[in-house]
Structure formats: structure tokens, C-alpha cells
Amino acid sequence: MKLNGAQILVQSLKNEGVDYIFGYPGGAVLHIYDALDAQDDIKHILVRHEQGATHAADGYARTSGKTGVVLVTSGPGITNAVTGIATAHMDSIPMVVISGQVPSALIGNDAFQEVDAVGITRSCVKHNFLIKDINQISSTIKKAFHIASTGRPGPVLIDIPKDITIAQIDEPAYADVTDMRSYQPVVDAEPEQITKAAELILSAKQPIIYAGGGCVIGNADQELREFTRELNFPITQTLMGLGAYPAKDELFLGMLGMHGTYEANMSMHDSDCVIAVGARFDDRITANISKFCPTAKIIHIDIDPSSIGKNVAADVPLVGEVKSVLKDLIQALKGKKTADISAWWLQINEWRSVDSLAYQTKEGVIKPQTVIETLYEVTKGEAIVTSDVGQHQMWAAQYYHFNKPRRWINSGGLGTMGFGLPAAMGAKLADPGRDVACVTGEGSIQMMLQELSTMLQYNTPVKIINLNNGYLGMVRQWQEFFYEKRYAMSYMDALPDFVKLAESYGHIGIKVEKEEDLKPALIEAFKQKDRTVFLDIMTDPSENVFPMIPAGAGHNEMLLAGRDEMASTNDEGLNLV
Amino acid sequence: MLENEAGALSRVSGLFSARGFNIESLTVATTNDKTLSRMTIVSVGDDGVIEQIVKQLDKLIDVVKVTDLTATEHVERELLLVKIDVNPNTQANIDRKIDQFSGKIINVSEDTYLVEIAGQSKKINDFLDSLDASKILEVSRTGVTGVCQRREG
Predict the structure, then answer these.
(1) Which of A17, A165, A380, A496 sits CB 3.0–4.6 Å from A5 for a disulfide?
(2) Which residues of chain A have a CB within 8 Å of the CB of B8?
(3) Which residue in B6, B14, B61 is closest to A123 by CB distance?
């Protein structure tokens, strides 16, 4: 049977088990939309902006572990999608983006809605393709899904000119396997490296496990638990790793890094053996790299060889899938005795007693931290929480104790405001039976508000927790600390009435101004199982995120709430982001 | 070695600019296997930088194999085409130098030579340095290409 390129494309997506496409039609993809319309297996979610499509596909991927799929048109369709592609790239999220392109004959002619999609996305995708021949469609789709979802996952773009989607050939056979000589991700670490790591672990007196997003993406939560508990070692997690190890477990020291806990950062600083598991030592984690872990030997487990030695030199590099490497390590350590670390635990518990996440409540003011704690209580810690970027993101990370992986969905690497709402929609589609909360702020939410419309159309009820303090809070915090309280352009005047706004989109809006109304409002919101509820919560505009490692400082130079209200930095620190 | 596909070169050059690595020279052409290209890149950096360059290149999907040639017994060569102003007063001297450097005159006009010299970059630099700079009309260098000496590169 003859099929056109669009039909082959859609059939290939079916073969990959795609159930949702997030997209937006336009001239260059009309044939593809026509083919999509003629089938029922793949559901299409019509977003209101292409950036929303990428974030929704991203939220879907992070929740389900499957590859998120996006379909956009040429020109502005793909340029709008770039922010979401870069977001997925920084956080290693499997995604396939299909962009229409002007007809082959017009490429390079500055045709209507033409951009060099492959060129524009090159530095923010794992790989990209420009299909030049209808015979390449199915094999390219196969490769794209393979590349996106294996090794260190990431977004893959397929640019397809319009003429190729209407040309016809006999229906091609779909390949079962993909073998690419230039792409062979490593699975297992080398056995001698496992032995070296095990020796180091057994001799450590002040060890700490530092686990990152790789434990979530690599589905290694079970192995991580077993490894940590077997050793009885303290464990800290990055922003991206939260949930891989249960937050309520006694071995867990909380998040580390710029807004990590006192005990996590002090333990990193004084450790003699840091076991990095699927983490990449980025600048939010290491703080001042010259002061980072001065006395530690470093074991670094990562699927991506280029992550190893990039920021911090590893004493024992272990290249492989986190899950497989942890299994091998557990096996190698079985029945062996670790050094006595009871003195280390005494020290850690002393740091713990500082209670660095304690905060002062104030009469008549809703503290943002209280909102997150109440959210945790009302949802019994079982919700999926997405967030935007800023102070609210840090508070959500600190006070919603994630006990399971794939429950915390945020843009950690790129820090993309606007991510939270579409990501929540994607998460709800991936796990419809679970409550989904989008913790956001009045700044971030306004970057992707239009997706409220999509959420009504496809009935994806989520609860929007808007921590409304009138300020771009994280910017305001830095201006307070480092710019002598000159609040340049961080106050947002003329905010919309979010309650009416939510209502005009067909959702429920509730404004919360008093602390006593907070819990009842949250309970009411989550009772509305089938509705999206926008909770506009007026929070303390002067609250800051603590603890904090100011730019340029080391892990042992933290600022604590109520003790170091005023931070400062030096010229070198001011140049850091 | 990388897949001989459109865009492969820009992936490599884009990687260098995006990550702030410098390129001293870059040569690329297909090999005896038409589906593969060999690219020789000369870059300068400490061991950490070179290690990152190798790893980042290896991460590119189109790249089949990366070798740090300087860590092996290897041969590197570069080709120079240079156009030189020649007059009866300078000709003998220039002829001698071309001879010393095993160069080849491949074109002669009324008042110019077009000279070809192949060899290590140092030899080419030395040859150019030996000429009167004001007599060098045009220089075109290919950049370095190289291979490892052992059987398995």
C-alpha cells in the first residue's frame, strides 16, 4: 500500500508507542496534521504556545519516564519551542520534537516561515536531523527515539520539509532495532573501577552520598535506597534528585547546595569520601569550587563520561548507568565491613540540631514556607509537584518532602520561568489518578498563563499554588543582599485579578489573604477532583530563602535565617549568577 | 572519525565555540570508506581541557571515534601554497630557499612564484620566516592533518 510521508511519520510514532503529542499546527505541518486526524491511537493536545508544548511534553516525560513528543510548524513554531527544548536538554529529559520545514526546494531562500531549525537548535539538543528523503522517515524516527531515551537522555529534533510529507512510497517495514556505530552508550562500569570504589567506600570515616537527577532519570531509586541503607551512610540530594531517596528517612540530610541544609553542606565540606551518584557538580551545588570538598576523595558515577572531570576531578570515575553501577557496588560491598562512622554521625546530628530550615512566623502574614508545609500535609505528601523558577521553587524543594521519585518536576538546569503550568498539565496526563500541584509565583505564572485554556479543553485538573508576594522574589532577595536594597525592576505592579482570570478560563479561583484560610482553601481545592483551581495566596513579600551560600563562598560559609539576615559578597561573587 | 553527513562539521565547530575551546586549525575530508570523514583538529589547552574536548567530541552522535594524536606516535603534515614576489635581484636567493625546504615551484609568472611546501607546521613557519615579509603576496595553509603510526589508529 502506498503511504505519504505524513502517514509514514504518524505510523512510525505509533510503532514507538506514542500516546500523546503536544503540538500546534501551521502551514508546514498540515499534511502531518491531516494524517494525525485520520487515526485515534495518538491523542493530540493543542497547546496555546509552542513553548507550552515542549514543557508539557517535558512534564509528561519526567512523570512517566517515557519520551515526550512535540509537533510544531516551521519558523516561529520551532523558535517558540527552543526554550522548552533547551530546558529538557539541561535536565536530560527524553523528548522528540518534530518540526515542519518549508518545502525542500525553498530551503535557503528565506521562504515564508523559514528558519534553519537544525542550526538554531544544534547546541540545545542531544542530536537533530533534517529529513531529505521520504525513505528516511521511519528510520529517522526510530533513531530519534533511541537516541532521546538511551544513554544520557535528551531532546532530539527532526526537521521535515513539507514536500516530503506529501510524497508517496510503499509502506516501509519498521526496523526493530537500531544499531549506530557512532552511538553506543555504556551500561556497566569497569569491574576494576568497582573494586577501587568499594575499597575507598569501606575505608571512609566521613563519607557522604551525593545523589542527583540521574537517580530519578535512571530509575535507580530502589538501588540507591539499598546502597545507602546497607552502608548506613548519610545521603544528600540535589534539586534534581529529590524523591529518589525518601526525604523522611533518617539517613537523609536534605538538599545540598546554594539553598541546601546546614547539615548537608557541612557534611560535604568535611567529608573524606564523596560518592556522587548521577550528579554533575554544577555551580549551584559546588558553590565556590576552590573551596569545595577540600578533604574528600571523590567517587563519581555518571552515564556521561564528559560529566566526569568537567567541574571537579574524580578520584574514582565510574562510567555507566547509575542503576547498573549501584547494583555492582552493592554486590562488591556485600558482607564487607565499613569503617566505624559513629563519630561522623554524632557530628552530623550536631549540625542537624541547628535546624537550618526553621523560620519565624509573623502574626497576620502568610509565610510561603507554611504554604508548602500545609500543601504537604493536605496532600499527605502524595502529590506530584511542579514548579516554576525562583524563591517558590526553593521553598517547594525544601518543605515538600519528596519521598518518591518522579513527583518533583522542575526546571533545575536552565531555570525556565513558565515551566510549571504546562509541565503540570503533562504530568496530569501521564498520571491522571494523582493530584498535581503547580507551585508558582505571580512572575512565573504570567509567562505561560495561556495554557489555562488548554487545561480546560483537555480536562487536566491541577491545583495552582500561586505564592503571590508582588515581587520577582529571588531577584529581590539578591538586590536586598548584594545591591544595598536597590530593587531595580523587581516589583510587579498592575497584577491581574488572578481569581477572575482563572474564572474567565473556566476554572475556579480562590484568593487567600489570611493564614487561617490557608488550610481550608487547600482542602477545598483538592476536593475539586475534576477542576483546575487557582489559589492566589498573598505571602510575606519580605521573606528570603535560607539557608544560603552567597556567591563566591564555600559550603561552610552558609547564611542562616534569623542569624545572618544580611548577606554580602565580594567582587568575584558579584560576577557569578 | 565521524559520519560523512551534512551538518557533522558544524556540530564539531559549534561545540568548540559553545564551550569556549579554541581551534588552531581544522581539516576534514572523506576517507577510503565513503561513509566516514576524518577530521584533524589542532587545539591548545591543558590536560583537563584536552580531556574535555575529547569527551565532548565523543558525545556528539555523529562522531565515531576520537583520538588524541599527541598521546600517540603519530605523523602530522601541513600543505602551504604561497605566492611570492620575485624579481631578478631576489630570484636566486628565493630559489635556494625553496630548494632548502624541499619546496616546489608550481607556477611562474613574470614577477611571481607560486610555491608548494608540505611538512610539519614548524617547517612551514620557518620557510615563511626566512622570506622577506614584504615579498609574500598570499599565503594559503591547509591546517594540519595527521595519523597515528600504529596499525590500529
Answers:
(1) A165
(2) none
(3) B14
**Domains of chain B, first to last:** 2-66 (3.30.70.260), 74-148 (3.30.70.1150)
* DSSP calls for A535-576: EEEE--TT----SB--TT--TTS-B-TTT--S----HHHHT-
Query: Angle A30-37/A5-15 helices, nearest 10 degrees?
Result: 60
For the cut 80, the answer to whether the pLDDT of residue A211 exceeds it is yes
How is chain A split into domains, by residue range? 2-170, 191-352, 368-538
Domain A368-538 matching CATH 3.40.30.10: the answer reads no
Tell me: the pLDDT tens digits for A277-293?
Answer: 999 999 999 999 999 99
Q: Using a CB-CB distance cutoff of 8 angstroms, which residues of chain B are in contact with residue A181?
A: 64
- Per the CB < 8 A criterion, the answer to whether A97 and A158 are in contact is yes
Name chain B contacts of A305, Cβ cutoff 8 Å: 55, 58-59
Query: What is the phi/psi pair of residue B63, to 5°?
Result: -85, 125
pLDDT tens figures, A357-370: 999 998 999 999 99
Q: Shortest CA distance to A50 belongs to which of A29, A9, A22, A27?
A: A22
Is the CB of A119 less than 8 angstroms away from the CB of B6?
A: no
Closest CB from A130, A182, A313 relative to B61: A182
Domain A2-170 homologous superfamily, CATH: Thiamin diphosphate (ThDP)-binding fold, Pyr/PP domains (3.40.50.970)
Superfamily in which the A191-352 domain is placed by CATH:
TPP-binding domain (3.40.50.1220)
Under 8 Å between Cβ of A532 and A507: yes
Rounded Cα gap, residues A194 and A127, in angstroms: 31
Q: Rg of chain B over CA atoms, in angstroms?
A: 19
Determine, for residues B61 and A119 on separate chains, whether the beta-carbon distance falls below 8 Å: no
Q: Give A9→chain B minimum CA distance, Å.
A: 22
Measured from the Cβ of residue A458, the count of other Cβ atoms closer than 10 Å reads 17
Q: Nearest-CA neighbor of B104 among B90, B120, B116, B121?
A: B116
Whole-model pTM: value is 0.95
Omega before residue A541 within 30° of 0, cis: no
CA-CA distances (angstroms) from residue A373 to A252, A257, A361, A381?
Answer: 18, 21, 13, 10
Mean of per-residue pLDDT scores for chain A = 96
Of A93, A2, A82, A27, the residue nearest A49 (C-alpha): A82
